[in-house]
Structure formats: C-alpha cells, structure tokens
Sequence to fold (241 residues):
Amino acid sequence: MSRITEIGPDIFKITTFIPEIDLEFNQFLVRDEEPLLYHTGMKGIFQIVKESVASLVDPTTIRWIGFSHFEADECGALREWQKIAPNATAICSFVSKVVSVDDVVAERPAKALKDDEIIVTGKSRFRFLQTPHVPHAWDAGHLFEENSATLLCSDLFHQNGKVEPITESEIVSRFKETLIEYQKGPFANYLPLTSKTEQMLNRLADLKPKTIAPMHGSTYVGDGESAIYDLSQVMKDVLFW
Ligand SMILES: [Fe+2]
Ligand SMILES: [Fe+2]
Fold:
C-alpha cells in the first residue's frame, strides 16, 4: 500500500517505496473540480496507486494527467489510467506528445502545452514551463501550481531511500549524495548539464516556490528559490568532475 500525505491544500502525495532499489516513487493527486494526477507511476504499481487515488477521489473522474517527460515512472501507466477515466487527457510538452506519448502510451491524443500556458482545474492554477533536458530528456517540462506556489519538479531534488514525506530541513545534501552515488554506477550522468541548464533552473527559482515536490524523496517546504540555486551549484560541482 502507498502512503498518502497532504502537502498543500488538496494536493496529495502518494508514495510507494520499492526496497529492491531503495527508492520512493511519488505521484501527486490534486483534488479539485477537475482532478489532476501528476505522474502515473509505472504500470507495475498502477493497482496500488489506483487504490490510493480512490481513497481521495473517484478515479474515473480524473480529468488531467500531467508529467514531466516520457519515462515509465512519469507516464508508463497512462493508458491504464485513461481506460478507467474516460475524460482523462494527458497534458505534456509538444515534443512529448508528438515524439512518444501519442504513439506509445496514450489511449487518446495528448494535449500539448505551450510554454507558460495556464491550466485551471478549479481552485488550482497550473503554469507549464518547457524545460528541455531539465531534469532530463528533450521533451521535459514542469508544472507550477501558482496559488500554493508548489513546483512539481520531477527528478530534480531526487533523494534515494525511504525518507520523511515532507520536511522543512534542506534536501539538497541528500540530492548531492544520490548524484555522487549514481555517478559510480549504471545510472551515471542521470541529469545532463547543457549550456541552457542554469538559465532554466534560474527560471524555476524565479517562481519562488514555497513547496518543492520531487518524484523521488521528501517534499520540501521552505525557501524554494534558494533551494534551486543550491541544487544548481551541486549539479555543477558533481557533474563537472
Ligand atoms: Fe526521469
Ligand atoms: Fe523519475
């Protein structure tokens, strides 16, 4: 069974820990007039996630399914979700839609979001930021919920292990430990550094998030702007060596 934590008003984090790989996978369910699920999780945990979602909203009423980029933990179970939720539309970048999603995992065509496009789900208001190769993948983007200043940040701030659901202590040190560990094995170069990485991270920092919600690890509540600058420095320190 997954663990459910309310990280903001009607924003719920659903966490499944997989001990074999010492890693948590988080999905986020926004309970609103038009319920939004961010990250579907892999097909292998669909039933577990579905049970958790069902304790919050009727899963058949999910209207929007968002994710950062085309990967199994981001959107692997999209088709399964769309089969049970007849009005669920995937929202992602244009590149995600046309390069992979519509052909591989979507039951119905996705809605491509333009940079800075707003999606209003009722009381929540999401801004889409197109961020190619941040955290990784050409098609990557981010959703930022403007009323609660919550940044759904995908693989940025990735922390290994079974950790507290939400924290006001900094999470950048744990992110750094994970990056260093990954550099020694098959997951090396997890996050690319490009000529535009810093600029895109600065743009996320400028949003001044109060809550930073990674896919893997603790949600951080605090000064998100500083946390993103710290993360940017860690990426340079670890990935430039
Ligand atoms: Fe990823
Ligand atoms: Fe991920």
Remarks:
- The longest helix spans residues 224-239.
- The helical segments are 46-54, 72-75, 78-84, 94-104, 172-183, 197-206, 224-239.
- The longest strand covers residues 11-18.
- The mean pLDDT is 98.
